[in-house]
Amino acid sequence: MDKEVMNLEIIESARPVYAVLVSLLAVVLIGSSGKYPNLRELWTMLAALLKFGLVVSMLPTILAGKAIEYHVITVLPGLDIAFRVDSLGMVLALTASFLWIITSIYAIGYMRSMDEHAQTRFFMCFAIALSAAMGAAFSANVFTLFVFYEMITVSTFALVAHEETPEAISGARRYLAYLLGTSIFFFLPAMFLTYNYAGTLDFASQGILAGKASYTIISIIFVLYIAGIAKAGMMPFHSWLPAAMVAPTPVSALLHAVAVVKVGVFTIIRILLFVFGVDLLTEIGLGIYLAYFASFTILAASIMALKQDNLKLRLAYSTVSQLSYIVLAVALLTPSGITSSIMHITIHAFGKITLFFVAGAIYVRTHKKKVSELNGIGRQMPFTMAAFTVGAFSMIAVPPFGGFISKWYLVMGTFEAHLLPILVVIVASTLLNAAYFLPIIYAAFFKQPESGEVHGIEEAPALMVVPILITATGVLILFFASPLLLNLVKIAVASALGGGY
Amino acid sequence: MIKHLPALLIVIPLLVAIITPIIGRLHWVLSWYAVTITTFISFVISLLLLQTVSVQGRISYWMSGWEPPFGIEYSVDYLNAYVLIIVSFMAFAGAIYSRKNIDVEIEDETRKPLFYTIYLLFVTGLLGMVVTGDIFNIYVLLEIASLAGYALIALGKKRQALVAAYNYLVMGTVGATFFLLGVGYLYLMTGTLNIADLAVRLPEFYETKAIFTAFAFIVVGLSIKLAIFPLHFWLPNSYGYAPSVVSAVMAATGAKVAAYVLIRVMYSVFTPAFFTHTPFNIQYIFLLLAVAAILVGSIMALAQTDIKKMLAYSSVGQIGYIVLGIALMNVTGMMGSLIHLLNHALMKGALFFAVGAVVYRTGLCSIENLRGLGKKMPWTMAAFTIAALSMTGIPLTVGFISKWYLAVASIESGMWWLVPIILLSSILTAVYFWRILDNVWLKPAPGEESHEHGHDSHQKPVKSNDAPLSMVIPTFTVAVLCLVFGLFAYAPVSIAEKAALILLK
Description:
The structure holds two protein chains of two kinds. Chain A has helices at 15-32, 37-63, 87-114, 119-137, 142-160, 166-198, 215-228, 240-243, 249-276, 278-284, 286-307, 311-331, 335-366, 377-380, 382-396, 402-416, 420-446, 462-480, 482-496; strands spanning 9-12, 66-76, 79-85. By secondary structure, chain A is mainly alpha-helical. Chain A is globular. The model of chain A is unreliable at 1-7 (pLDDT under 50). Helix content of chain B is 75%, strand content 2%. Chain B has 20 helices and two strands. The longest helix of chain B is centred in the last third of the chain and has 32 residues, at 331-362. Chain B is globular and about 70 Å long. At the A-B interface, β2, α5 and α6 of A face α17 and α18 of B.
C-alpha cells in the first residue's frame, strides 16, 4: 500500500454524532405520529435518507485517508463515549444506512399488506436499532462499542417479540438470553481485562495489548472476546439467530442479515485488528485457531441449512455460515484475507437481504413458508424469483455476482497464509451452498405447482418488489463496480497492517 | 451560622420532631409540611457541608465548645458529607412521596402525624450517626434510628408487619448491644471514645485479645444492622411488610449508614495494619460473606412472588457488593463500595417508590399482578424499568459504574475469581427483573387476555391511570438520576475517590 494513504489527519466533526442521532430523533417523531401512518412513515423515510446522506458526506474525507473524530463525554477516566470514523466503520455504516432506506420501503409494503399490529412500536424500535448500528460502526473505543452493541440487543428484542405469540416470545427470550448473557459474561470481563492491562480502551491501528501482558493472558482475553460477541453467530452461540426468525420478515432482512449480525462480525474485526493487532496475533498464532473454529461453523451451519424446510430458517443457517466466512477471512491475518472479510460485510448484506425480501414477498402473496411448497412459484412471481436467483448465486459465489469477489480474495488469503486445509473448507462449503440453494431455484422455475392450477403473474405489491430488484441489482453492481468498495477497504487494510491509523 | 452547620443538621429535625405530633393534631398535613421542609433543610445543609469540606478540608465541631477528646466532636470529611447527602436526599424524596402513599398504606388519620414524627426521628438518628465523630454517640443515635425503624415497620397494614418488626427488634437489639459491648472494651483499653483519638491510641493495643474482642463485637453487631449474609434474616420480611415509603427510605438510607459505620470502624478506628494481627484472615471472611450474600440474595430474589420481598432479597445481594468493595482493601474497591452506596440508594429507592405507586393504584404487589401495567402506569413503569436495567448493570446506568469499579478492583488485587461472581449475579439480577418487565410490558392486563391482537386502528387505547404526581415525580426523578450519574459519573466518583484516599491513606 502506498505511503500517502497513511498520512493520518484527524478532523474534528460532530457529523458521526448527527448520523447516530438522526434516527433517535425520528423515534420521537414516529412515536408522536402513530395515529397518522403516512406521516409516521414519512419520518422513517426522511431519517433514513438523511442518515445515508450524512454518512455519504463523510465518505470523501475517509477516502482521502483522513479520520473524523468526536469526543462526546467522559463517563469515567478511561471510559469515554467517543466516535471515530474510519474506512472500516464506513463500510458498515454505508451498507447499513443504504439498506435501511430500501428496507423502509419494503417494510411499509410488508406491514401494510399483512395488516400488522403495533406498527408504531415496530418502526420506533427499527430506528433505534439503526442508530445503535451507526454508533457501533463509528465507535472510537471498546466501551462505546459495547454500549451500542447492547443497545442493539435491547432495541431489537421488541422486534423479535413483535408478533407477541407464545412462539415469538420464547424466541425473543432465547434471543435476549444468548446475546445479553454472552456479552455480560464474556465481552464485559474481556473489557475489564483489556483496560486493566492496556490502561486504555481506545482502538489503535496496531492494537493496544502488544507487550502489555503475557501470551496466556492475551489468549484468555482473546477467547473471552470471541465468546462474548455472539452477534457474529459463531457456534456454539449461534442458536439465537434461527430463534430470531419468528420476527416479521423486514426485521429478519435488515437486522438479522445486516445490522445486528454485521455489527457482530464488525466487532470481531475491530477487536482483532485494533485491540490485538495483526502482529501480536500472528506472533501468538491465535489467528489459526480462530480460522479453524470458524471453518467448523461454516460447514456445520451449511449442513444444518440443508435440512431446513422453512425458507427463513434455511436462510438463517446460511447466514450463520456466511458470517463465519467473515471471521475466517479476518483470522487469516493477511492483506487479502482482511480485504475479503471487510468486503463480505457489504456483499453478503446485499445478497442475503435480497433473499429475505423474497421470502417475505412469497409469504405476503401466498402465505407459504416452506421450501417444499415453492414448486412453480417462479412462474407466478418471476421478478421476485429472478432476484432470489441473483442472491443465491452470490451466496454460492458464482461470477458475475458480488459474492465471487469476496470469495476470490478469501482464496488468495488462504494461499498467503499457507493454510491449504482452509481451501478444502471453502470448496466444500461452496458445494453445500449450491446444494441448499439450487434445488429451490430449480423447483421454483421448472417444477409444476402441486395443486395443478396455473396462476398468472401475481407479484407482491410494488413497494416490496422494487426494493427486491434494487438490492438484486446491487449484487451485480458489487461485481462489476467492485473498485468502489475495494478502494475504501484498501485504506482499512493499510491501517490495520502497519502505518498510521 | 455556617460554623454550626453540623449541629444544626441534628438539632433542627430533633426539635421539629417534638412539635410534629402537636401540629399534627390540627391537621395531619401540617406534619407532612413540617417533615418535608425539615428534610429539605437537612439536604441543603448536607450540600453546604460538602462545599465547606471541599474548601477547608475536614470540619471538626465541638459540641457545647468542649474540646475533643473530652467533649463530643462532630466531624465531617468527604465521606461523611457524601453519605449525608445520600441520606438527606432520599429522606426528602421519601417525604414528598409519603403524602399520598400513606393514604393507602396507613389509612388511620390519627396515626399519620405519628408516622411523620417517627420518620423524622429515624432520619435524625441516621444523620447523627454519620455526622458524629464519637463512637459512643454513634451507638446512641443508632438506637434512636433503630427504635424509630421498628416502629415504622410495625405501621405496615398487614398483620405480618408486627411479626417482622418484632423479629427486627430482637435482632436489632442484639446487634446494638454487641456494638455497645465492643465500644465498652475499646473504652476500657484506651480510655477514649473519640474516633480520631481512638485511631491514635489503639495501635499499641493491637496485639491484645481485648481489642480483638472489641473489634469482633462491633463488626458482628454492625453486620446485623447491615444485614450481611447470614445475619440478614430480619430484612426481607421487614422491607416486605413495611409501608412502601418506609421500605424505600430504609433500603436507601438505613443500610447505607450501617455500611458507613462499618467503613469508619474498619478504616478509621482500626486500620488495615490491625488486620494482620488478628488470629484469622478478616479479609477472606468478609470476601466469602460478600460472595455468599451476592449469590444467595440473587437466588432468593429469583424465588419470590411478592415484588417487595424480591427487592428486599435483592438488597441482601447488593449489600454484598458494598461489603465486597470494603473487603478488597484497595482504593478502587473502596471507591466501588462508596459509589455503590449512592447508586444502590437511587436504584432501590426508585424501585420501591415505583412498587408503592403500584400498590396505591392496584392495592397488590405480587409479580403476577403487574401484567399489562406498562400501558396503565407508563411513567411509574418507565421509572421502574430504568432502575431495573440499572440494577443489572447496563452501561450508561449507575449500576454499570459500581460493577466496573468492583471488577477492576478485583482484578487489581489479583482476585480474578470475583469477576465471574459479579457477572453471574448480574445475570441473575437480569433474570429476576426480566420476569417483572416481561409482565409489565409484554403481557396483557388481567381480564384482557381474550383480546386478540388485531390492528392499530381497531385497538382500544388503554387509558393511562398513573399514580398521583406527588408519587410519580419523586419516583421518576430518582430513576432519572440513575441515568444521570451513569453518564456523568465523574461527579460522585471524584468525591468517592477523595473519601477513599483519606480512608486508606
